Amino acid sequence: MQIGMIGLGRMGANMVRRLTQGGHQCVVYDRAAEAVAAAVADGASGAGTLAELLRALEAPRAVWIMVPAAVVDTVIAELRPLLTRGDVLIDGGNSNYQDDIRRAGELGASGVHYLDVGTSGGVLGLSEGYCLMVGGEPEAVALVEPVLATLSPGGRLPAGAAAGRAAGTAAAACGYLHCGPHGAGHFVKMVHNGIEYGLMAAYAEGLNLLAHADAGLERGAADAETAPLANPHFYQYRLDVAAIAELWRHGSIITSRLLDLTAGALARDGRLAGFAGRVADSGEGRWTVQAAIDVGVPAYVLSAALYSRFESRDRADFANKVLSAMRLGFGGHVEKSG
To answer: What is the pLDDT of residue 37?
Structure first.
C-alpha cells in the first residue's frame, strides 16, 4: 500500500527501508534534504514539502509521523489543512497518551482518523522488525494493517478472519496489536519503557557489583569518616565482567536483548571509557510512575530506576551538599576529597 513518512531519523529511515523492501510505496519528507535523498536512493519517493507529500498519496491517505514528541503538535498543525475526511494520521513516536486523546478528538471533528502507535525495536528494527502497540479506531487500524504487518517481526498478516484481526493474539504473535481506543497504544508503550528502565537498572547495578568484587584487595582508609570493610577476604575477586555478561547470554534465565547489547559494549571496551554515565530519559518513565500514582499501583522498581537516571545527571548534587553541611554542623565532619 501507499504511505507517507514524515521524519527520517534513525527509526523513521529504517522503517521506510523495511516497508520499501516489503513492497510498499513510501513517500517521504524530512527537513534534512540529505535524509530524503538517502530514502529515495533506497526506493522511496521524496517530497520537498508536506503539501507535496499529501498530493502524492491516493485517498484515503495514510501518513506516519516519526518525530520527537515535543514537535508532534507542530507537525499536526501544518498537516491539518491538508488532510481530508477518511485520511489516517499515525504518530509512531513516544508521545504522552493523554496528548493522543486530545489530538484524536481534534482531528476526528473533521473526519480524520488518528492512530497512536508505540514503536519498539530501535536500530535493530530494520532487520528484525518492530513491536507495534496500536491505539485508535478499528476501521483505521484495518486500513493500515498491511503496513503494521510488514514492520512487525512477523513481516506478514496473521492467518484468520479479517474482522478484528489486529486485536487478537494471532497479530500479537506476529509483533503488532490493536491495544484499544485512542491513547492505548502509547499507554502500553509508556509502561513498556518504564519496565525497560527497571531492567536496564538491574543489569547496571548487578554488573557494577561484580566490577567492585575486589574491594577486599584494596587498602581501605582507616579514619572516623570511613566505614571499614568488615570481611575483606570475602571480596577478593577480580572478575572479567565482559566475559560474565557474555556467559549469561547462553542458557541463563536472565538472557535478553538488553543483555546482548550490554555484552557487546563490554566486549568492545570492558571499562566503557567512551561513556560519561549521564543517562537521559525521554519522558515515558516519568509518565509511567505518574500513572502508577494516579491509579494507586505500587511501582517501586520503576520509580527507583527513574530516580537513578536523574541522579546520573548530577541532579542530586545540591542534596548531597546539604548532607555534607549537616554532617559538618552536627559532628564537625569535614568532607573527604576524591
So the answer is: 98
SS (H, E, C) the chain: CEEEEECCCHHHHHHHHHHHHCCCEEEEECCCHHHHHHHHHCCCEECCCHHHHHHCCCCCCEEEECCCHHHHHHHHHHHHHHCCCCCEEEECCCCCHHHHHHHHHHHHCCCCEEEEEEEECHHHHHHHCCEEEEECCHHHHHHHHHHHHHHCCCCCCCCCCCCCHHHCHHHHHHCEEEEECCCHHHHHHHHHHHHHHHHHHHHHHHHHHHHCCCHHHCCCCCCCCCCCCCCHHHCCCCCCHHHHHHHHCCCCCCCCHHHHHHHHHHHHCCCCCCCCCCCCCCCHHHHHHHHHHHHCCCCHHHHHHHHHHHHHCCCCHHHHHHHHHHHHHHHCCCCCCC
Q: For 177-204, how does the pLDDT look when each residue is reduced to its tens digit (9 = 90+)?
A: 999 999 999 999 999 999 999 999 999 9
- pLDDT band at residue 273, thresholds of 50, 70 and 90? very high
Catalytic residues: 189, 196
Q: Which pLDDT value is given to residue 252? A: 98
* pLDDT band (50, 70, 90) for residue 164: low
